[in-house]
Amino acid sequence: MNAIPLLLTEGVDKRKLVKNIRELYRAKGTSEGHKIFMRMLLGEEVVVNYPNKYMMRVSDGNWSNKTIMRVSPSTTAIGSEVVGTTLTGKSSSATAIVASAKEFVEGNTLIVEFELNPDSLKTAFTFTDGEIVTATSTVQDVAMTFTVKQIVATTTATDGGAIYSVDEAFVLDTNTNIGNGLGEGKIESINEGSVSGVVVDDAGTLYEVGDTFTFTTSDSDTVSASGFVSIIDGSLVLERTDVTGTNAGDFIISEDATNVHIDFFEIELERSTTGSAGDSLILDNAYDTTVIQVESGVSSSGNIVLNGTDLNLTNGGDALELEAYHDVAASHAGHNIKMEASINQINSDVYTTGSDRFALEEKTDYSGGISRVFLKSGGGGYITIPTVTVTTTTGTGTALLATTDNIGSVGDTVIINQGFNYSSAPELVFNANFTLKDISGTFAASNTLTTHTGTISSFNSSTNVLKTSFEDVVRVTLETGDEEEIALEDSLRDGNDVKVTTLGINRSFDVEDNIVDADGIRIALNAEDTLDGYMILETGTGQTSGSAIIQEVPDNEFFPPIQLETSSRDGTSIGDGIANESGTGDVLLLETAESLGDNPAGGRIIHENSQLISSRSSGAGTFLITNASEDTDPSTIILNGTDSSLSNAGGDLLNEEHGNNNTIILNGTDSDSTNAGAKLLQNVAAADGVVALNGTDSSSTNVGDSIINQDAIDFF
After folding, report:
1. Would you give the distance in Å from CA 266 to the centre of its chain?
2. How far is C-alpha 147 from the chain's CA centre?
3. Tell me, what's the pLDDT at 54?
């Protein structure tokens, strides 16, 4: 630089020349360096186009990402004037060379985006959020200042959802309390998945248990899902299991140990018969009578005939006919001919669940409509929802939908707008996808939804997948509107006109209530056990082990009287017996006593170590209580207390209401005093919106955010 002479061409400032030479050297090799050179040499503004801008070449895999910084410019700062200069952080001392700059407005905020030369960055220093950075204008030769603002650098999907597509856009977060709410991204890749269920959209008719499913997809390298029809025409359901209607409408299901079923046999072709051995004999679809024919179009001579129905070959040569309830309109054409119902075999279940239902018997309400299906395997490798059809002999009209919780879940994402001025990391907000059934009408892109706030992005009529523009969350809504009375001003109210109304309970369930007798007296236990030990029998004594050893008690005995012969008796106690000579009337008794039978068992024998302890019992006086009881009589909610001293304990909890003297009463609504005495009501406006947070900490973080359910919407 010292070789540059002091005196230059008129109008050329040596200081600016040296400065531009320095900046040219720093920006050498860049488009901005070429522009500075041409500006210095010719004094012209030029546009630099590189050949590779219009060149197509095979990628060599040398990928690179731009290093960008978004800043808020000061009033006089112009981003384009610092291209090629060094940007310096005031507090961090970090430096970088600006390779390019662009200005744009988002949400009424002017933003400057610098692309930084990655080779000029030093790992020892890092720019920080909110710091002032400076650079010298190449045009005005003045220092320009900018304020660094946090942007979103990377994103990760923690809940990938399902049924998304590559390049589908999403917002980073609409919460303007943590950023400008305008950050955007797109889905770069989605994950493979499997079918998690099959939904019956239309039951159809004439289907049979065992009809199989075919899953069709345009995806490559997939493992096909599989399933079959498990129940037709319906299952048994509960009316209820108690007086409150619990479990009403629930299906009656099999016990866990129910794991067998009955298989019925079909008639197969003999091995010598033309065709494949083991093929089933099926019904023809061209019969014109109720006989079973051999093949289509064969005359009556081609009927399947009986060899006989008994040992005497009775009915030999007669045609084998269908049962009376079979018609002749080929509705059973193609069905296998089965053996009698009594010829069967019990086999273990191959496919079973913990909620197998009791199906209705055949011909109970026969339509052949599909009411339940079984998914044997969900397959794998799907990135789009497959369509489902049924392979059937006679069924028609069904519509089945495959559902999933992982096909097309979000994999990698890429940011297309980093947003601006973020104070914390935003959440990725993916739009909601639905799988619909029972559709009426049509859906079209950009249609406004009436049940939700948003629009339709797209609808696939083959899979019934609806994509929308609203977020995949359930917000807590505000209460709806109502009507209420218009009260008088406080100064006009009558303090004595207060309604005393209680808060009632229609039905309650009480646990551990006392059991009482007819007089209301509680029933108490005599004892639950005793603390004394008793002697019992051991094993092998010939009696029940553990039986108590009791004390012996003599039998009851009496001495019968000596009686006269039957012919001499007069029917009285004295007249029938022989009395003493003394005249006292005492009847003479036999010397030998006779037994009146065994006495009741004697008392149990206690242990020696119990003899010094007075006999005691535990639990005596304990009241019997219920496990649960239902109180159908109306009751009220009472107070436990209104202060630490339990004041007002047991008092009713009252509604806060006032009487008619404290509300505005109509004199009438017309000259005939119609509605006179009625209360004047006001409409409480219906709440419009959702419950929002005031903040989650003292710094009002998340203020304005909606309160949402913990789980996302189950759209599948």
Report:
1. 43
2. 46
3. 66
Q: What percent of the chain has pLDDT over 70?
A: 63
| DSSP per residue, 659-706 | -GGGB-B-S-SSTT-TTTTPBPEEEEPPP-SB-B-S-SSTT-TTTTPB
Q: Which residues are CB-neighbours of 416 under 8 A, at least 6 positions away?
A: 169, 184, 185, 186
8 A C-beta contact, residue 24 and residue 36: yes
The values of phi and psi at residue 262, to 5°, are: -105, 130
Query: Which tokens go with 74?
Result: 């000061």
Q: Give the span between the Cα atoms of 636 and 505, in whole angstroms.
A: 6
C-alpha 261/C-alpha 349 separation (Å) is: 6
CA distance 302 to 304: 7
Give the Å distances, CA to CA, from 226 to 177, 215, 616: 49, 7, 71
Query: 266-304 burial by CB neighbour count: b if 16+ within 10 A, else e?
Result: eeeeeeeeeeeeeeebbbbeebeeebbbeeeeeeeeebe
Contact status, residue 150 vs residue 129, Cβ threshold 8 Å: yes
Residue 500 has a CB neighbour count (10 Å cut-off) of: 9
pLDDT digits 0-9 by tens, 257-290 = 677 777 777 666 555 555 554 555 555 544 444 4
**Two tokens, residue 643:** 């202060």
DSSP H or E stretch at residue 439 = none
The residues facing 86 across adjacent strands are 97
Residue 359: exposed, middle, or buried by beta-carbon count in 10 A (0-12, 13-18, 19+)?
A: middle
Residue 92 CA, chain-centre distance (Å), reads 49
Residue with tokens 């991204």: 185
pLDDT band (50, 70, 90) for residue 533 = low
Q: Could you tell me whether strands 344-348 and 260-264 are parallel, antiparallel, or unpaired per DSSP bridges?
A: antiparallel
Tokens of 396: 């028609």
Q: Record the tokens describing residue 8, joined without a space.
A: 């230059």
pLDDT of 329: 45
The domain limits of the chain are: 432-472
CA distance 399 to 632: 47
**Residue 619 amino acid letter:** G
Compute the distance between CA of residue 380 and CA of residue 215 in angstroms, rounded to an integer. 11
| Chain position carrying tokens 């065992």 | 210
* Token code pair at residue 251: 């299906």
Q: What sign for the dihedral angle of Cα 316, 322, 323, 324?
A: negative
Distance between CA atoms of residues 368 and 150, nearest Å: 63
By DSSP bridging, strand 370-377 and strand 344-348 are unpaired
* Residue 414 structure tokens: 């890429």
Residues 6+ apart with CB under 8 A from 31: 48, 50, 100
With a CB cutoff of 8 Å and minimum separation 6, the contacts of 209 are 228, 229, 230, 231, 232, 359
pLDDT tens-place string over residues 94-152: 999 999 999 999 988 999 999 999 888 887 788 999 999 999 999 999 999 999 999 99
What is the rounded CA–CA span in Å between residue 22 and residue 28? Answer: 10
**Whole-prediction pTM:** 0.53
Tell me the β-bridge partners of 357: 253
Name the β-bridge partners of 246.
none
Cα–Cα dist 132/141, whole Å? 19
Residue 223, amino acid: V
